[in-house]
């Protein structure tokens, strides 16, 4: 990812504090700033804004990001820069610092904002996707643990359609998939083993097609209870063998990979059972995603919880019926 030099210079002046509403940093504190962002940059005495702009260019060149995502290191820099503990003058809530930063970010198609926990986030304006830390297995904050527990309870009570519409579709959109089409369950004859199909564009602009076969509960293959996993196997074979119509290309294409997604656990026995039924070429096309994967990805993607996962509010005292005995 490459930014315009002017925008890099403007952002670097905010980091070193040569702009109003941002804390001034000398050479020592610039080094400490990058240390707080887990970056091993040591200021060597060069002109501060110029040196910082060069380091920012290095961060943005780190591998991994696409046009709608950011390197983790850059997101850490923005969060450190907008730390509310560094309020300057009358900018107690850092709204003025946020506004000044957004003038620069908007030139590159991004916007910063504070979430409900007061943590700075980055949003890609064109796609409305939120940049997130890439590692779903990192330690969670207390608020993230609470959101994970609420979603865990929701997955235990939601229907299969709710799992798809309220959880999987927003999640895969946030992860960069597009043209996400849900088959639904009203017309099984048109489903052909796919609950959802979608596209993913590689950095080389090649397009891969994915299908999702979703099941609400646990997938197991222990003892004689293989009916549900056998059904999944049949649907996956239908998915990989049946063409889908891509209206953007006006032609029919085959699904490249299949996701088997479960709102519960996918046991090792179930994975092995399906793997043994598939030949080597098909086996490489199948990927599994169980409840823990959904929970971790949903939380680190900073997506809003489904309405059914939010804790219900207690009724106001005046709303209670006087005739109800206590």
Tell me what the structure shows.
- By secondary structure, the protein is an alpha+beta fold.
- It folds into two domains: 5-131, no CATH class; 142-309, Trna Endonuclease, Chain: A, domain 1, CATH 3.40.1350.
- It is 39% helix and 16% strand.
- It has eleven helices and ten strands.
- It has helices spanning 5-16, 27-36, 48-60, 72-81, 95-107, 142-157, 160-174, 227-241, 268-277, 280-283, 291-300; strands at 110-114, 120-124, 129-131, 178-182, 196-201, 207-215, 243-246, 251-254, 257-262, 286-289.
- The strands form three sheets. A five-stranded mixed sheet has the order 4-5-6-9-10, sandwiched between helices. Strands 1-2-3 form a three-stranded antiparallel sheet. A two-stranded antiparallel sheet has the order 7-8.
- α1 (5-16) packs across α3 and α8 crosses α9.
- The longest helix has 16 residues, at 142-157.
- The model is unreliable at 185-191 and 314-326 (pLDDT under 50).
Tell me the layout of helices and strands.
Blueprint: H1 5-16, H2 27-36, H3 48-60, H4 72-81, H5 95-107, E1 110-114, E2 120-124, E3 129-131, H6 142-157, H7 160-174, E4 178-182, E5 196-201, E6 207-215, H8 227-241, E7 243-246, E8 251-254, E9 257-262, H9 268-277, H10 280-283, E10 286-289, H11 291-300
Parallel strand pairs: 6-9, 9-10
Antiparallel strand pairs: 1-2, 2-3, 4-5, 5-6, 7-8
Helix pairs in contact: 1-3, 1-5, 6-11, 8-9
